[in-house]
Amino acid sequence: MHTCICLNVELELRAQVRLFKDLTGHLPSHMDGHQHVHVLPEVREVFAQVLSDVRIPYTRVPVEPGLHSCPWLPTYLHRFYTQVEKDALDSIPVFTRYGIRWPDVYLGLTTMGQNMSVSNLKRALAHALASGSSAACGGESDSDQPVITAELMVHPGYPSQPQVGGCGEGPDDFSQSADRQHELSVLQDSALQLLYSQERVQLCAFKDL
Predict the structure, then answer these.
(1) Residue of 175 and 50 predicted with greater confidence
(2) C-alpha to C-alpha distances, 201 to 125, 158, 182, nearest whole angstrom
(3) Average pLDDT in the 42-58 region?
(4) Which residues contact 32 (CB under 8 A, 6 or more apart)?
(5) Alpha carbon of 151 to those of 6, 18, 62, 73, 129: distances in Å?
C-alpha cells in the first residue's frame, strides 16, 4: 500500500509540474503542498525526489518561531500546527539530502484568516527576525547586518462561489470564506507597508533568492 501511495503521489507531482510548464513556459521556482502535505512522512521523500529530478530548488519548511507562545490560537489549531511543525522538522534531513532549500524563517500559521492583522503580523515578524538573525546565511547588506530570508504564507483573494471553481469536487470551505478577502485587505493596509519600511523588509519572490 505504501508503495502504491508513493507512486501515485509521484505521478501527480510530475503531472502538475508538466502542466505548470505547459501553461507558463517555465518551471516553478518553488513547490509545496496544500495544508503542508509535502512534509507528511508518506510524502516527503518522493516529493523531494521529484523536486530534485526536475530541478525545482525551493520548498517550504513550516516551522514558525513564536508559535508555541501565541496567545490567540484555539487548542485544536495549536495541536494541528504542532504536528505540522514536527513533520516539517523531520523533513529537513530529507530535503537537505536532495539539495532542496528553503528560506531562513517561515511565518503565517499564527496570522492566517481572521488572525491576520497588522499587530499580529508585527509580532510574527519580530519572532521571525529574532530567530532568523542567528540562522541567516544568505549574505550581508550594505550595513553589514545579516540578510534574513523569510516566507510569509498568505491566502489573499475573494471568496469562491459554491459549485464554481476549486479543485475536484469544487471549492473547499476556506476557498469560500471571507477570510481570504480579509487577508487581502490587511496586506494592502498602508500601516503594514509602514511596518515593512520600519523593519527594512524588502518584498521579493522565490525566484529572487
Answers:
(1) 50
(2) 10, 26, 22
(3) 97
(4) 38, 59, 60
(5) 28, 25, 9, 20, 12
Cell, residue 48? 523531494
What tens digit of pLDDT does each residue of 194-208 get? 999 999 999 999 999
Question: Phi and psi at residue 170, in whole multiples of 5°?
Answer: 115, 180
pLDDT digits (tens, 9 = 90+) for 114-125: 999 999 999 999
In SS3 terms, 93-119 reads as HHHHHCCCECCCEEECCCCCHHHCCHH
SS3 4: helix
Which residues fall within 8 angstroms of residue 110, CB to CB, at 6 or more apart?
A: 64, 66, 67, 70, 72, 73, 120, 123, 124
Helix or strand or coil: residue 25? coil
192: helix, strand or coil: helix
Q: Which pLDDT score is estimated for 141?
A: 47
> The C-alpha cell of 53 is what?
529530478
Predicted local confidence at residue 172, as pLDDT = 78
CA 34 to chain centre: 9
Residue 33: exposed, middle, or buried by beta-carbon count in 10 A (0-12, 13-18, 19+)?
middle
**38 vs 16: CA distance, rounded Å:** 14
